[in-house]
What we know:
By secondary structure, the chain is mainly beta. It is 4% helix and 28% strand. The protein has two domains: 2-64, no CATH class; 69-127, no CATH class. The strands form four sheets. A three-stranded antiparallel sheet has the order 2-1-3. It is elongated.
Amino acid sequence: MSHFAKIDPNTGEVLEKIKAEQDFINSGVVGDSFLWIQTSYNNNFRKRFATIGGTYDKVNDVFLDPKPWPSWSLDSNFEWQPPKKYPDDGKNYLWDEAKQDWFVTPYAVGEEGPLVGIVDADGNPIK
């Protein structure tokens, strides 16, 4: 079986994911087959496994993670990059969008990369 992501035809947003055979997708049981794009659980194609809330870039045939912050931009490898590089001093940091800067946090940084959100540099929850 394969994994498929249902795409909003206007925005490219990933709305849902299912595991199915191509024949099932083509049958129309889940709607128009052109709305379903195959995605690779092992990231073997289309850059990464589709994420609900992320988008499908039809021009480049890749799935994009949701944009973490408005100020971040997409690089040529289809990864979101902050306007200021993550510090490389071994400390844990979070991004503060209002201050456009990283701040030291007592929270651990996950294997997926730096945590974003949670609190600002003054310890206030970011909404």
